[in-house]
Amino acid sequence: MRVSANGLSLAYDDRGAGIPVLFIHGYPLNRQIWQPQLAGLADVARVLALDLPGHGESQAAPGPYGMDRLADACNAFLDGVGLSEPVVVCGLSMGGYVAMAFYRQYGPRAAGLILAATRAGADTEEGRSGRDKSVQLVREKGPQAIAGQMLPKMLSPNAYREKPGLVEQVRRIMEGISPEAIEADLVGMRDRPDSYQTLAEASVPLLIIHGADDQIMPVDVAKEMQAANRGAALEIIPEAGHLLNLEQPERFNAAVRSFLEQR
Ligand code: MLT
User: Fold this and answer.
1) What are the backbone dihedrals phi and psi of residue 14, each rounded to the nearest 5 degrees, phi first?
2) Confidence band, pLDDT 50/70/90 cuts, at residue 63
3) Could you please report the per-residue DSSP string of 180-244?
4) CA distances to 55, 206, 234, 241 from 176, in Å
């Protein structure tokens, strides 16, 4: 499906009925990562998964995106699909940065936050220079080089032995993201602000969910996020890496389902 949002044509999936839940993908990915949630949660929620501008089948916005502009796109997307009631916003990794930016700017629109495999802190100096190196890499060698660098870290170590189909699926998604979108994501993530205050002040139900075997963001970052907000729940999913929703869809969906029921 497609909708016009702030003049951009955005692609999305929309399935089920009930409390609307907006799923925001990470980097360098697209909405295909949410297929298990579209299939597994549509009986309890209206599951909306969009391709961020420039990703998947969505039109690119001119100029740098930044997390705030991606949050603006999510807000315009909700207008575009005609949703006026508050939605639960679920972001994975970079999608979590966007979810926190969304909450900062459009808080009353959020009925809850699910922050998956993400962190609230800004990039360190080392992290920022790593982003610049990745920008060079994508300019010189393209998305395949980025995918090649990231693929071994996206899933738990076990998945590379036991789930070759999943590994290939993730590789295909990453290789399909345009170099321009990859660069915009890298610059946007590099320059994003610290979100600990946003997290501390969040007054909506909050679920932090993380893979026990995440090789990109250690579980400690999830524990630190939980410590920052008195009401936050933390779920650590065993046998799951960074893309925990794809790797352990039943466990991930069960955690989301119970969060939605308890809100
Ligand atoms: C992601 O999965 O979205 C990224 O790994 C996040 C990041 O690099 O900070």
Assistant:
1) -145, 110
2) confident
3) HHHHHHHHHHHTPPP-HHHHHH--S-EEEEEETT-SSS-HHHHHHHHHHSTT-EEEEETT--TTH
4) 9, 32, 32, 21
Tokens of 24: 């925001």
pLDDT in tens, 174-232: 999 999 999 999 999 999 999 999 999 999 999 999 999 999 999 999 999 999 999 99
- Please name the amino acid found at residue 131: R
The C-alpha torsion from 86 through 51 and 155 to 118, rounded to 10°, is: -40
Compute, in angstroms, the gap from residue 92 CA to the centroid of ligand 1. 8
Atom 9 of ligand 1, residue of closest alpha carbon: 94
CA 27 to chain centre: 8
Residue 176, token pair as written in the block: 């399909």
In the sheet that holds 2-5, the strands lie side by side as 2-5, 8-15, 45-50, 19-24, 87-92, 110-116, 206-211, 233-237
* 8 and 223 Cβ atoms separated by less than 8 Å: no
Asked if 81 and 203 count as a contact pair (C-beta separation under 8 A), the reply is no
The DSSP code for 32 is G
Supply the residue whose CA is at minimum distance from atom 7 of ligand 1.
94
pLDDT digits (tens, 9 = 90+) for 81-104: 999 999 999 999 999 999 999 999
Burial of 176 by CB count in 10 Å (0-12 exposed, 13-18 middle, 19+ buried)? middle
Ligand 1 centroid, distance to 93 Cα (angstroms): 5
Say what the pLDDT of residue 65 is.
84
Nearest-atom number in ligand 1 for the CA of 150 is 5
